[in-house]
Amino acid sequence: MNTNSEERIVHFLPDYGINGCLQFGYYKYSKAQPQLPIHEHRNAIELCFCIKGEQHYVIGEELFQLRGNDILIIPPNKEHGTGEYPEDKGELFWLQISCSDKQDRLCNLSEEHSKYLLQVLENISERIFKGAFQIKFMLEKLLNELKTSSNILSEITINQLIVQTILEVLTLSKRKQGSLPLKRLNDIDTYILNNLHRIIYVDELANICNVSVGYFKFWFKNIKGIPPKEYINRLKIEQSKIDLLKKDSITTVAFDLGFSSSQYFSTTFKKFTGYTPKTYISIQSNTR
């Protein structure tokens, strides 16, 4: 059975036929909530993805402070909670994965692959590292897929998204966390995420890095391989793929993402996806 409210959604993954996983949840709070009591997950690893805001967790006797775009992995059988802190204002996803000796193979992977992923996740637990936009989009797609799950294709998609998320987490955990280029990129991603609802100008991103617009464009393209404006638009289009399946109209999605008109949004969407928004909605609806 699923527990749902406006601010908090919890899906029990075994109900959807997903092997090796226990719970997938999401909250979006506009104000602080009561403290999360100290507890543990027996034979289960928990992955926490802080999308916006702040969240404090105490694991054992160590305090961890998560900010937007941070990831924290809590090892199995380890007491944790928010301590003296509330469940804070913000947005957060979590995923619980079983690591019991009697577990089913994770998302129908081979036994060897399942054990490998669980071991690596446990090895990188109890430390904070930076996420990436790809993670946010995967988690939102997973949440949307669980809301509309109705057939075998949905089950396959859910399994694929969970594995893809875990693999992305492992990749991100290997990045050098303290380097200046990574810090700049993390600051840029956080800024874009917080301002997806409006037009974002390149000079704003240059100011974050305290460099000239000309140098910023050169530096960014050298690091990312694409100009900053294209990067912003690609992220908005990725967000729109999720929003188009949830919101009432294409025009609403366009304006909510800061496009000046639905026509400009449709042109940009087709440029990056090969489809118009209307065709994309139709294709997605026909696969459910």
Summarize the structure.
InterPro entries: AraC-bd, Homeodomain-like_sf, HTH-like, HTH_AraC, HTH_AraC-typ_CS, RmlC-like_jellyroll, Tscrpt_reg_AraC-type_HTH. The chain is α+β, with helices and mostly antiparallel strands and 288 residues long. The protein has two domains: 171 residues, Jelly Rolls (Sandwich), CATH 2.60.120; 107 residues, Homeodomain-like (Arc Repressor Mutant, subunit A).
Description:
The protein is an alpha+beta fold and 288 residues long. It folds into 2 domains: 3-173, Jelly Rolls; 180-286, Arc Repressor Mutant, subunit A. 45% of the residues lie in helices and 20% in strands. The chain has 10 helices and 9 strands. Strands 1, 2, 3, 4, 5, 6, 7, 8 and 9 form a 9-stranded antiparallel beta sheet that branches. A hairpin with an 8-residue loop joins β2 and β3 (21-29). α2 packs parallel to α7, α5 packs across α6 and α7 crosses α9 (262-273). The mean pLDDT is 89.
